[in-house]
């Protein structure tokens, strides 16, 4: 994403969400069999791909023949420093020189739970507005990154008040992932404590660490990161399996208000802790 400018950056605990313009967003109505946007203009492609006719005369014939099955309304375009599309029986734009009728917007009646033509008309207005946003590149996507800047998840193609919808979706996704990364940070924080104890010559630490399966630490002042993380993970799991959370809340590694509000069962907490990987490395990686 280095070649794209960030529109907005959002922080959710240790996670970072970035909203970008989606420069490759496909037409949201392309190949749509319920909605056909017909644009007959020498400089702009026809989203309906000629399905309703390739000339104004052919289009008028199609509209007349398909009136019972399709709701149709004239489509108008304003073309000046970008394009804007609106529906209406008459030109809705105030400037007659840069605007004019370019086609029809067609809605298949059987596919919508709409009762009156007035309902269809209002919906057609919304479609024209969304198509305008897409045509002008007002499209967005997001990327969610972990504390190291690695991508966790991404989603693209938000059109129609796209930036707002992208942000809502991003925040919701971040909240789903946040507990896992909050816990990793907590475990790593306690692991750093174990390393500090080793540097200070804590004589009780060697016995605790050597209880870990396969541990070959000799008790020197440098406690390898893998054993420090393994010790911290073990401490968290022992407490969680006993139904406690004081270690989570007391050491300051977690956002206490967040963990007080979050709904997570002891069983889910244990599963998340068990899923934390112990790195096979001697040095701290955080």
Structural class: alpha+beta
Low-confidence stretches: none
For the largest sheet, list the strands in their spatial order.
1-2-7-8
Shape verdict:
elongated
Q: Tell how many strands the DSSP assignment holds.
A: 8
Largest sheet: 4 strands, antiparallel
The radius of gyration is: 29 Å
Number of domains as seen in the coordinates: 2
β-strand percent reads 15-25%
The end-to-end distance, rounded to whole angstroms, is 23 Å
Task: Let me know the average pLDDT.
Answer: 87
What is the H/E string?
EEEHEEEHEEHHHHHH
Helix content: 25-40%
- Separate helix tally: 8
Secondary structure elements and pairings:
Layout: E1 6-12, E2 15-21, E3 35-39, H1 56-65, E4 70-79, E5 83-87, E6 99-108, H2 117-135, E7 140-145, E8 151-158, H3 162-199, H4 203-210, H5 225-241, H6 246-250, H7 256-261, H8 266-274
Report on this structure.
A 4-stranded antiparallel beta sheet has the order 1-2-7-8, with helices on one face. The protein has a 4-stranded antiparallel beta sheet with strand order 3-6-4-5, sandwiched between helices. The protein contains 8 helices and 8 strands, in the order βββαβββαββαααααα. The chain folds into 2 domains: 35-135, no CATH class; 174-274, no CATH class. It starts with 5 loop residues before the first strand and ends in a 12-residue tail after the last helix. 28% of the residues are buried. It has helices at 56-65, 117-135, 162-199, 203-210, 225-241, 246-250, 256-261, 266-274; strands spanning 6-12, 15-21, 35-39, 70-79, 83-87, 99-108, 140-145, 151-158.
Defining key terms:
286 residues, alpha+beta, 8 helices
């Amino acid at each position: 994403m280095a070649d794209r400018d960030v529109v907005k950056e959002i922080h959710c605990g240790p996670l970072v969400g970035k909203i970008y313009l989606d420069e490759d967003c496909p037409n949201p109505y392309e190949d749509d069999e319920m909605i056909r946007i017909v644009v007959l203009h020498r400089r702009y492609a026809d989203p309906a791909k000629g399905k309703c006719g390739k000339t104004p005369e052919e289009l008028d014939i199609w509209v007349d023949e398909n009136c019972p099955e399709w709701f149709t309304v004239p489509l108008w375009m304003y073309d000046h420093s970008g394009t804007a599309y609106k529906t209406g029986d008459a030109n809705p734009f105030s400037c007659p020189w840069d605007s004019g009728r370019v086609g029809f917007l067609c809605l298949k009646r059987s596919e919508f739970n709409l009762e009156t033509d007035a309902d269809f008309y209002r919906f057609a207005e919304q479609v024209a507005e969304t198509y305008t946003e897409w045509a002008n590149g007002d499209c967005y996507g997001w990327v969610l990154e972990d504390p190291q800047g690695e991508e966790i998840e991404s989603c693209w193609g938000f059109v129609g008040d796209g930036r707002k919808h992208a942000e809502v979706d991003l925040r919701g996704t971040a909240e789903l992932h946040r507990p896992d990364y909050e816990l990793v940070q907590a475990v790593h924080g306690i692991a750093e404590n174990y390393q500090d104890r080793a540097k200070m010559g804590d004589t009780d630490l060697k016995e605790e660490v050597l209880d870990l399966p396969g541990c070959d630490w000799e008790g020197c002042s440098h406690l390898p990161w893998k054993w420090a993380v393994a010790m911290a993970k073990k401490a968290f799991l022992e407490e969680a399996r006993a139904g406690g959370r004081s270690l989570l809340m007391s050491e300051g590694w977690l956002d206490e208000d967040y963990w007080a509000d979050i709904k997570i069962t002891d069983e889910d907490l244990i599963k998340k802790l068990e899923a934390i990987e112990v790195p096979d490395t001697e040095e701290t990686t955080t």
